[in-house]
Automatic annotation (TrEMBL):
Protein name (database record): Dihydroxy-acid dehydratase
Organism: Spinactinospora alkalitolerans
PROSITE patterns with a match to the protein in the record: ILVD_EDD_1
Gene3D superfamilies: IlvD/EDD C-terminal domain-like
Domain Dihydroxy-acid/6-phosphogluconate dehydratase C-terminal: 367-562
Amino acid sequence: MTTAPENGSGRRSAHWFGAGGRSGMIYRSWMRNQGFSDEVFDGRPVIGIAVSGSELAPCNAHLSRVAESVKRGVWQAGGFPLEFPVMALGETVLRPTAMLYRNLLAMEAEELMRANPLDGAVLLSGCDKTTPGLLMAAASTDLPSLMITGGPMLNGKFRGEDIGSGTHVWKFEEEVRAGRMSEADCAFAESCMSRSNGHCMTMGTASTMACMAEALGMQPAFAATWPAVDARRYAAAQRAGRRIVAMVEEDVRPSSIMTREAFENAIRINAAIGGSTNAVIHLLAVAGRLGVDLALDDFDALVREVPTLLDLMPSGRFLMEDFCYAGGLPAVVAELGDLLHTEAPTVTGEPIGAAARAGAAECHDREVIRPFDDPLQPAGTGTAVLRGNLAPGGAVVKQSAASPHLLVHRGRARVFDSPEEYYAVADDPDLDVDADTVLVLRNCGPVGYPGMPEVSNVALPSRLLSQGVTDMVRICDGRMSGTAYGTVVLHTAPEAAVGGPLALVRDGDEITLDVPARRLTLEVDDAELDRRRAAWTPPRPHSERGWTRLYCDHVLQADRGADLDFLVGSSGHEVPRESH
Ligand code: FES
Ligand code: MG
């Protein structure tokens, strides 16, 4: 039986709900069991609302309430909203790391968007991996889509001090280990840090990616920064519901929003907000889905003239709530001015520079959002991309989170094959490290861990902490939490587990880090490295089956966004074959 559309709308959804005969009856009849009346099948745009929330993903647990606001807007505009769950990735709870599952979420959401009778989608995300995962899905279906992130938690408040998610966990851990804070006070601080729904309120990965969604044009202006509990977030969600219906009518697709210009804007805005290094990997992965020509080195070249404007933790003092009240991302866009492609389109139909041009992007707090000519950190101190014989595929270092005196440094390597191996001896008072030691931590990459977790910023050895040392050079093939800080070389590619040079480092080797020259050098000659390489054997696979097997067999290195090789690109949103 064919399912030629009968309601004549020509939309994708008409191939289901507008179909004649037995098939049409099947598609409609079972939907009716939810109490929908006839009009929903009249050819109106069907809008899927992808909800990446669950009680296991605390940062996204409120997204079903945000979905209710989106639905109001969709109904108002004459659309038919249908909420559907997608993988909820909780950064804090998932082991071995939520990053192992970002591509699985992207794959799941892509397939659901294509296989269902949807004409457009609203993507609800929050916690770190949910935003890039859903953007990747939208890119690969190229179905009209917009994003609403769930918003940050309210500022943490501990004994009169603002405390930030993540950032203060690292700080308190150090205080306790150095004997300056009691275990009891630390336990009390735990409940002071997470006071409302929402994602981390530092400029960690979630806030960064929410800002990236707005910077790319996929999320409406101001929507990255309203706290999760702010009524204006819900009003924005309702407006988004109305807007997606219009986007379907105008056929506004992700590929027309997320252009090379949009990525250039995002990369520069990420530097201005002091955003997470994880944005590098996620933006590369999204760009790969769209066929946008973006490379790791763009992240270095594009940010050299961009100062850090935002004084937010972990690089600075304030939190997302302060950023919101200070003017939100449009105020940063206004400040960057001509450094951005201000005409780049966004999902609202207005270009990214519209709020600034209309005078609606004022800054209300110059302590939080600094002026371009009096920035928090001068231009050229953003994320740097390093190359050299230790990182032929590149590595990154977040200069604003690093110690200036370590940006040019030569020291002897102390090598650990896993974080567990390091932590087993980290408190040993006789550990053979000093302030100049370069701590090498390997097998933390996409294949190595697996999933490339945020373990690179290992806490300093007790011995150094007790000497008052606050930072040391660490080099790793893993990632670092966006809420963390330290002179940590990240994303070293290729990773050790696939035979990258990091696998060849031995205790006592000299390593030179030269951030101004963008070099990372293992001071061992090629002949010796060749000998070591010949003797190297790959680690045993983590799993012979399941997702971990599929992931490890196909994951690309960090410099390609750690997507799966067969997920790069787009399959569009053609209506699949009949199911009955
Ligand atoms: Fe979910 Fe930080 S843990 S946003
Ligand atoms: Mg994180």
